[in-house]
Amino acid sequence: MAELVLDEIVVPLRSFDLGLSLEVDGTVAIVGPSGAGKSTILRAIAGLMKPSSGAVRVAGETWFDQSADVDVPVDERAVGFLFQDYALFPHMTVRQNVEYPRRHPADAYLERFHIAHLADARPGELSGGERQRVALARALARDPKVLLLDEPFAALDAHTKATVRHELQELLGGLAIPTLFVTHDFEDAAALAHRIGVLVEGSIRQLGSTAELVARPADPFVASFTGANVLSGVVAGSSNGVVRVRLADGTVVSTSEPASGEVVLAVYPWDVTVGTEPPHDSALNVIGGPIRAITELGNRVRLSIGPISAEITTASLERLELEVGRRVFASFKATGTRVLSSQTD
Known about the structure:
About 20% of the residues lie in helices and about 35% in strands. The chain has 9 helices and 21 strands. It starts with a strand and ends with a strand.
């Protein structure tokens, strides 16, 4: 597969400089909060924004190189770009939108994206999922050497998003071009990308697979962004390889990782068990308290209990007859905690 290479590009922004090097040879996601510089990366690749330094290379071709005074015009860069709002031409039919790049007849793409029956419709008559399929068909009809996706699910409701994400997952798996997409949603990134970079104020904090980011987050921000509970406290003692940490509310939890002084721990919600009675296993960390909130996540539910969130199945929620205000006990193993920072670092 061809590669997309960003070589030490720098783009000055209002509050900071975006600066990164990145190689994309499959599907890579960049996640981060709003204003982190995610969309700027895509615009720099497409030629819509000019870096102050660095180089952009795709499939061995140099599209931008400040030192060599190379800057290929936007319309000469073989980019398939799916904009956040899809940017379809409202006065054109679906067929006309897909054929706008003037590379191929639309028929094969209409069939591929299951929108042949919409060929004569206009964007205003389509659902969000249908508009995205049209925009993707148009992007690929350009014969791009790289595919760029800007928040591909932002305009979709939760039900449509689940369906379209599955469709996009299958599509990307069959493409032979590098794909870079940006999103603020780690779950979307984990579903679609082989590697994920966490971007904060123009810099990548950590780049790796979903498993790598979850197993060993580089810092508290990465841990929080990947869905972890982040707990701060002070080491209160240790024995037999187990370190006890006193949290700000006085709760004491244990970790099997070395630490001293002020500590930041990460515990993932799916590593937390919830019960209506305290567990009998003294080796478990236990946090008791009323349920503060219940959030549905498809066939799973996230519960907020004191300083921690737990994720359980909807079946468990119903079986335990849980509701907001009911006192429960969240428990997790010492081996389920990760030390993100301490005075031993």
